[in-house]
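To whoever picks this up:

The nightly regression suite flagged protein-tyrosine-phosphatase as changed. Nothing in the input moved, so I suspect the structure step. Input below, exactly as stored in the fixture:
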Amino acid sequence: MFDNILVVCVGNICRSPIGERYLKQRLPNKNIASAGLASKKSHLEGKPADSMAQKVAQENGIDLTGHQSQQLTSQLCAQYDLILVMEKGHLNALTDIAPEARGKAMLFGQWIGQKDIPDPYKQSKEAFDFAYQLIEQAADAWAKKL
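Regenerated output under the current build:
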């Protein structure tokens, strides 16, 4: 039913690329991509994953090579059956961009107590490690549900 999954955060350089690649490992038969709510506004479109995100992902067996940030659009949302956002506030931001997609959007942390996954951008390695642990727990829970 949910064969096309889009993972969304703000800039599409930290949380969503890790979430995307981790889910791809767990659900190899699904089409999974990621995008950012403010990639364009933040001048991050086309940029690779954040260097600390790459380091933490690599330490956990996830390769972010080749990732390029892309802006979330209503056209992009139309291509996916399920859209997973990192924070509750992202649901409103998603609705501003693509109101028609609200019904297929849920929290990435839905099955781990509806937890927000905090943005580690420009923070310590510990912040990235913490975000990674939540992403891993949430993705494992989604893999069981899907």
